[in-house]
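Holo model, NAP. Inputs:
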Amino acid sequence: MKAHDGLYIDGAWRPAATTEVIEVVNPADEQVIAHVPAAGAPDVDAAVRAARAALPAWAATPPAERAARLAALRDALVARKDEIAETVTAELGSPLQFSQAVHAAVPIAVAGSYAELAATHSFEEKVGNSTVLHEPVGVVAAITPWNYPLHQIVAKAAPALAAGCTIVLKPAEDTPLTAQLFAEAVHEAGVPAGVFNLVTGLGPVAGQALAEHPGVDLVSFTGSTAVGRQIGAAAGAAVKRVALELGGKSANVILPSADLARAVHVGVANVMSNSGQTCSAWTRMLVHRDRYDEAVGLARTAAAKYADRIGPLVNAGQRTRVRGYIEKGIAEGARLVAGGPESPCEKGYFVSPTVFADVTPAMTIAQEEIFGPVLSILRYDDEDDALRIANGTVYGLAGAVWAGDAAEAEAFARRMDTGQVDINGGRFNPLAPFGGYKQSGVGRELGAHGLTEYLQTKSLQF
Ligand code: NAP
Ligand code: MG
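Output:
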């Protein structure tokens, strides 16, 4: 694609007030592939004003018409699916097949789900002598990360549009081209001017100006816990709604009755996909002591298959951070069974698929989010021990349980402090609520639960 040198504000690409730019780098070969504006506070202000001006008309647009725009948006994304996949591969580095199957396909499914929900959701209900109206929250600031660059945009923009909100998006500095493609699709879908606005820029400049803007009613943020905490504090001080989708350290619990080979195989694939840059990845594998050595052997074999298939990390800083965690794992006494901190390639921000055994719950690599292709295998004695370990982090975003039958796995899953659990390899469901317990976040995305985040209620008594 050709990068835009402007910002998408009030229905058109406009020059930024600043001349600062962001260099977009291909992490597979470290080449600069494009430049986009690094917006400042005046640009953010212009975008918020456009969103506020467009709000009354969009909020009053019948849900059926909002649904029609969302269906057109889904179609525009379908028409561009190859360009989307190629763009994600160029700026994030994920292998093209994964970009097609996940980075392009999932947002299409999610946009389609909100076209349907906008048409079928009850925006009014009767409660005794009251009529309860579900009205849009207002102007939404969407601040998104780079790891699933289009999915994370669509998971905010689609429900916001369905609800009748208007939006200003500040995407991650590493993946602005995918966001520009999304803005083009919104434009093609006939969404009225000002309803969706895109401001590319740096987090502490454009992101912070947007999150703190008094014209914003709700801040929806996905990213690191450190920034999420700041945004939550600022939103609290301004009495503004906030949704936070933060990190995770999810457990993959393999009960003794499970099909061990399948559980390990799927578990390793889950951690290595997208080079481990998935907030819900099952980065801690919990195995009963009687089957532990067998599981470690299976994981070593499974990880080796990814050695020449895995993409790079998104940037040099993330590679340094992930290598630091691998070195820390070794220093704290975990046993390296695959991969390691050395660079496998001369060019590109690659890290080898890495597996640690003999990891204990207190180790740094068992507690902190690494955000790279690094799996820790922990040993448990019995189910209560497994549950203590699974629940023993500050996070609670996702998880998995494997057992001989689904009922046994479900019984364990019900005791886990986490927002999503996949039972015996259950499939991704774009309508299921996604979000965190504990420090993994506040609020839910996707499906009807995700739509509710963008609505506020008004009660009329008769
Ligand atoms: P991040 O800094 O939290 O980035 C998320 C988004 O917030 C980006 O758009 C970022 O802009 C923006 N941002 C940064 N500082 C801001 C501020 N002060 N005010 C408002 N917005 C701000 O995350 P990161 O630096 O890309 O990644 C660091 C770590 O975060 C990762 O290693 C991983 O552990 C975690 N992470 C989690 C997720 C997740 O899905 N939960 C996603 C990505 C990262 P810039 O792009 O300019 O920084
Ligand atoms: Mg950052």
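The chain has 15 helices and 20 strands. Residues 251-431 form a domain with the Aldehyde Dehydrogenase; Chain A, domain 2 fold (CATH 3.40.309.10).
Archived with the compound record.
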